[in-house]
Amino acid sequence: MVERSAQTPTRPWSVGLTGGIAAGKSSVAAAFAALGVPVLDADHAARVVLAPGSAGLDAVIDRFGADVLRGDGSLDRAALRRQVFTDAEARRALEAIVHPRVRIWLREHLHALDAPYALLAIPLLRETWPAYDWLDRVLVVDAPATLQRARLLQRDGIDAALADAMLAAQADRAARLALAHDVIDNRGTHADLQTRVAALHAGYLRRAAAR
Fold this sequence. Notes:
It is built from 10 helices and 5 strands. By secondary structure, the chain is of the alpha/beta class. A 5-stranded parallel sheet has the order 2-3-1-4-5, with helices on both faces. Helix 2 (42-49) crosses helix 5 (88-111).
């Protein structure tokens, strides 16, 4: 973690939220937001930094061609996904464009917040570590792969082969858990999740006040 000054902090205390696909990150983020915690979303940031007219989108077009654009000039994410999903080199090229811009967006917006602490929802936190080692704490939402697969099939309406490929493309579950300070086991009910979030929220407020 980054060394801190004894002076008044210039940004809120920060918690990075991550987890496997379909583990329940969105539900956890919504539960924190309902408690008044600002939530900065890396997926939203990725859309912003690739918006029409942005330097990010220009870089994507330079690398992948105009075929990844819709008729209105916006990014056709499905077309881009088809190019990078089975091509590791293309995926790395896209990540080199998107990830640094997303990190800058998140840090800038974190510094602009007036709150005891903020939650940064970063699905690829493990894959991009240690670029986020300035976060104060990491919260991982965890679920067994079998449950992730079932949720993914139901949520996205995809076939089993694609679900398995998506699960295989993500970071290893053990590697994510090794990064965690806190874990939410999301195999239970919605009430269980709410209770766990409320307990973490109280603890995070104490930590933020004590830093």
